[in-house]
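Can't paste images in this forum, so I'm doing it all in text. The chain is below; anyone willing to post the predicted structure tokens underneath?
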Amino acid sequence: MKRILLLIGVIVVFLFGTLQVIPLENDIKQLSIAINVDDHINRDQLTIASRVKPPQGYKRLNYPEGSFQNYLRNYLLKPFGTVIVNYDGSEYYWQQGHIGILDIPVPKHGLQQCADALIRVRSEYLWEQNRKDEIGFNFTSGHYCSWLKYAEGYRPIIQGNKVTFHKTASMDSSKTNFYKYLNLIYLYSGTLSLYEELPKINNVKNLEIGDMLIKGGSPGHVAIICDEVINESGEKLFLLFQGNTPAQSVHLVKNLEDTSISPWYQLKKDALIPVSNYTFYDSKFVRFK
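Text version of the structure:
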């Protein structure tokens, strides 16, 4: 009996030890992601360009100072390990898909969702470049709403799909009023209006920083190219960041499919492209005007 009990004990210890050293498939995937991502990460750096290293054999393309491309590439990040939070202050349930949080506030009103976050980044860039006359977006109805007219006091009157603008407020060009304008855009614009309004990029060889991977719809989704590298063969890789629904921290995403180059992505048109917690099943690309 003692021999039987001893044998059973040896078997149990063996099985337990085996289970301890052979992780589940998901654990293997996550471990692989962590190893490969770290190959391309400078954890102590606080901009997109300084945090993420090009893969071996690739180098960054140069863009001029003051360009939207250079602005995105050098966007400030919060310290490595910062978690994604929702607009209500709670932590997002899944924290395994990002390697950086952009230094963009998450408004408590919950309006700044995926398309809205990128609209904000584009609009703030134009504001900082004193190109305020270029700030404007279509509503989903197709009606154009510009910041300059809003600053002059014009507000939309919306009845179904009919939109008219009337001067109902006094002139106010302040930054505070600018963010009120963006809140209006968040309400009446989105991935569908961006997809319908913006120029399409049909040849992926022409993709550049600032272009967006988009699924126009209700719901839809969108992520923006924020960095770009190229090798001697002319092959490009890209970094992406995104907002989300519910409104949450804007974050630089991992590549969960190809961990050997993560967080860099190869991008193709009309392809299936998983991006963190969303999958683009028929990839399309657009560019801000």
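Residues 153 and 169 are 4 Å apart (CA to CA). The longest strand covers residues 221-231.
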